[in-house]
Design a protein that fits this description.
The protein is of the alpha/beta class. The protein has two domains: 6-166, Methyltransferase, Methionine Synthase (B12-binding Domains), Chain A, domain 1; 180-294, Rossmann fold (3-Layer(aba) Sandwich). The protein is 54% helix and 9% strand. It has 14 helices and seven strands. The strands form two sheets. The protein has a five-stranded parallel beta sheet, sandwiched between helices. Helix 6 (89-101) packs antiparallel against helix 7. The N and C termini lie far apart (55 Å). Mean pLDDT is 79; it is low at 82-87 and 297-301. This is MerR family transcriptional regulator. It comes from Hymenobacter ginsengisoli. Residues 178-306 form the B12-binding domain.
Length: 306
């Protein structure tokens, strides 16, 4: 059974630790146990209870009324909010998290499919999928969630992105006015979800995309670029190359592919200094999506804005 600190509850539910303490003391909302050093710890039942209560309170219900509901009534009311025509992101995110905690794959798919039907693939991923994955990643690193729960969500997002991209028409190479993007992950990099989102977002906007996937040596990237002649090379940097080798990697990429601009995505790229001209670091997928309409045709490795 998983055990959570109050900071874990705050991270996963979005409810401030101060508020959780008040609810616990005033309404006996949660039933923590104590360690031998008198530190409160919370179980999965406490987290599920808090997620449901937070969902109801976020939609205007008073905590004094919500705490009177039984566990079954509280959960049913919270799930009902997720099926409204235009629900806030919070209730749906909490419902997705609750299904993840239970390793309820059918329930997770059902909730995700409902969101995609209403919001579309991109908005669902940006507003629900990736925030959910970020919450899980933080808690897994802290040791309060299992790797299986994070992997379950990651695999769901991967399946959704691949299926959605496959459903889009391919842009023929003969269509000269469609900007070309080459997507890859450098050698030693395997975190593919952000790259899959880029692939879908570009294809959905009529761009030509050559998707080469993870762990690609630089020599193979260069060979592919010479044949495909992309406007832009885009990659994601989370673990590779090493931070002290990032500038050298970018310099070599620009030297070998001087006619293509380079988009470097991720926290490592944003923190890098001394990147060569023609390299654009991006911190979030919203920024990437907003960039797409402005990339037209290449002029010696610069991004062209209309």
């Amino acid at each position: 059974m998983a055990h959570y600190s109050i900071s874990d509850l705050e991270q996963l539910s979005g409810v401030k630790a101060h508020t959780i303490r008040i609810w616990e003391q005033r309404y006996n909302l949660l039933k923590p146990s104590r360690t031998t050093t008198n530190i409160r710890t919370y179980g999965e039942a406490d987290l599920r209870r808090l997620l449901n209560v937070a969902t109801l309170c976020s939609r205007g219900q008073r905590i004094s009324q919500v705490v009177r509901l039984s566990e079954e009534e509280c959960q049913a009311a919270a799930l009902a909010l997720c099926n409204e025509v235009k629900p806030a992101d919070g209730p749906r995110l909490n419902a997705l998290l609750a299904a993840t905690l239970d390793l309820d794959e059918p329930g997770l798919h059902r909730l995700f499919d409902q969101a995609v039907e209403e919001l579309g693939t991109e908005e669902t991923l940006l507003r629900l999928g990736y925030p959910l994955l970020q919450r899980l990643a933080v808690s897994w690193k802290a040791g309060s969630l299992s790797l299986a729960q994070e992997r379950l969500v990651g695999q769901l997002l991967r399946q959704e992105l691949m299926a959605s991209a496959d459903a889009l028409p391919l842009i023929p190479l003969s269509q000269a006015d469609a900007p070309r993007w080459l997507l890859f992950l450098p050698e030693g990099e395997w975190q593919e979800l952000s790259l899959l989102f880029m692939n879908y977002a570009l294809r959905a906007r009529g761009r030509q995309v050559l998707y080469l996937g993870p762990n690609l040596p630089l020599a193979d990237v260069v060979a592919a670029a010479q044949a495909f002649k992309p406007n832009v090379l885009a990659t994601v940097l989370t673990t590779a190359p090493a931070r002290n080798q990032l500038k050298a990697f970018a310099d070599e990429l620009r030297a070998q592919c001087p006619k293509a601009a380079v988009v470097l995505f991720g926290s490592m790229a944003v923190q890098a200094t001394g990147l060569p001209d023609g390299c654009l670091p991006l911190a979030c997928l919203h920024e990437f999506r907003d960039l797409i309409p402005f990339v037209n045709q290449p002029v010696e490795g610069e991004l062209i804005e209309k």
